[in-house]
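Need a sequence for this fold. Nothing fancy.
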């Protein structure tokens, strides 16, 4: 069955195209810095926002018009696989991502859930073989069901910890079955409501225990995806243990997980933490922990997680600079953890929204490459830190100085130290010249 008969395969038509169902900037085969755009960007489509999100909000019922509902939940799940791969093929997306509960009904028992997952992943595996589309990552949803009210790995209830372990084991079995390149942990409920009844040390130790069990099981079954933790500061849990990139890195290092774990960073989660997206990427990159990204943006006027499709070229340009500085993001990718607005309820909006996101990242890539070709920011930084290139600065960088020798130097050098203006407004104005 064809679910989108009015949508052809989306083609690159260039900036002058008037066709809304065409890429104007994302040209998969265009070579930039020695790699094609497709290789740089490694786009992935998210099952949850694309296939299961219904347009409801806390004040309103579903609005989304979707053509794939069947007589039973399992029939709907099977239809969704067909429709999803039609979307992936028509968008020429090389990757996809999902939570376990996105793809298959949970049923009444864990056995039934596992059986449903087997049926659906058989179908997905066939579709992958037929199309060549790959699994960027999957994950276990350990936050939606009421049993996770007090967390998963951090739950006070050992039965919940055990249930979480069972879902993760199944997630890794599926990852092996489908050749997943990464495996994500998003700790939606891994935090606390009140310190009055919380043993924070026990909860964090237990989250690390669960991660170590995942590493051990991956080794046992001979499947080693890149493990990723996705930081988020709040929502749904008020205090999340994986607040931001820096906090999560401290956790990774404390529990000695750095050989197996990196970060999956999301734009809207960065802004919820009071950071820019590029700040989070920089923190990860300089610590060799930039794993993958969830591409979206928040609304500057709202304080919650709106998961909007990325359309801000300024942001994507700065993000792509970080990805290029990192020598790419593989085996990670750029996953559109983005949902259409409630008012964009037509089925074809799923295409228009992804086209907007693909084009915005393609513009970011082109701008970032131009900035690097001109050495615009690297020259600026080299000049700004030039005092460490020679003389006393070079000695400091070579670890040849100590407090005594620097005191001796400063007594001779005197207190009248000259600093230079940053001219940062001029820098920002010149940056605008590179926004494609
Ligand atoms: Mn989000």
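Here you go.
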């Amino acid at each position: 069955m064809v679910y989108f008969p009015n949508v052809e395969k989306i083609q690159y038509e260039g900036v002058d195209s008037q066709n809304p169902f065409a890429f104007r900037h994302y040209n998969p085969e265009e070579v930039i810095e020695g790699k094609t755009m497709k290789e740089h960007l490694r786009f992935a489509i998210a099952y949850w926002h694309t296939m299961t999100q219904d347009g409801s909000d806390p004040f309103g019922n579903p609005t989304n018009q979707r053509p794939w509902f069947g007589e039973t939940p399992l029939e709907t799940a099977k239809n969704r696989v067909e429709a999803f791969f039609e979307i992936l093929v028509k968008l020429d997306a090389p990757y996809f991502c999902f939570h376990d509960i996105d793809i298959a009904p949970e049923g009444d028992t864990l056995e039934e859930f596992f059986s449903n997952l087997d049926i659906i992943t058989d179908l997905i595996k066939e579709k992958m073989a037929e199309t060549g589309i790959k699994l960027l990552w999957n994950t276990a949803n350990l936050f939606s069901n009421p049993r996770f009210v007090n967390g998963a790995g951090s739950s006070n209830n050992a039965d919940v910890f055990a249930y979480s372990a069972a879902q993760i084991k199944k997630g890794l079995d599926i990852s092996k079955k489908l050749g997943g390149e990464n495996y994500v942990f998003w700790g939606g409920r891994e935090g606390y409501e009140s310190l009055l009844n919380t043993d924070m040390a026990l909860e964090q130790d237990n989250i690390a225990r669960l991660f170590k069990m995942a590493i051990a099981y991956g080794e046992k079954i001979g499947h080693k995806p890149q493990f990723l933790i996705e930081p988020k500061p709040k929502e749904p849990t008020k205090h999340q243990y994986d607040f931001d990139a820096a906090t999560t890195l401290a956790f990774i290092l404390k529990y000695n997980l750095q050989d197996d774990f990196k970060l999956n960073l999301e734009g809207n989660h960065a802004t919820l933490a009071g950071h820019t997206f590029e700040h989070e990427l920089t923190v990860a990159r300089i610590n060799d922990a930039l794993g993958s990204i969830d591409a979206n943006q928040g609304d500057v006027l709202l304080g919650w997680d709106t998961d909007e499709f990325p359309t801000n070229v300024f942001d994507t340009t700065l993000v792509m600079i970080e990805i290029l500085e990192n020598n790419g993001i593989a085996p990670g990718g750029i996953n559109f953890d983005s949902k259409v607005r409630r008012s964009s309820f037509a089925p074809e909006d799923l295409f228009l929204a992804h086209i907007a996101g693909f084009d915005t990242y393609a513009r970011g890539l082109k701008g970032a490459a131009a900035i690097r070709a001109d050495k615009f920011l690297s020259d600026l930084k080299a000049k700004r830190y030039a005092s460490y290139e020679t003389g006393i600065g070079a000695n400091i960088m070579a670890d040849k100085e100590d407090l005594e020798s620097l005191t001796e130097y400063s007594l001779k050098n005197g207190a009248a130290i000259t600093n230079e203006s940053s001219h940062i407004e001029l820098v920002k104005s010149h940056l605008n010249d590179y926004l494609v």
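For context: The mean pLDDT is 98.
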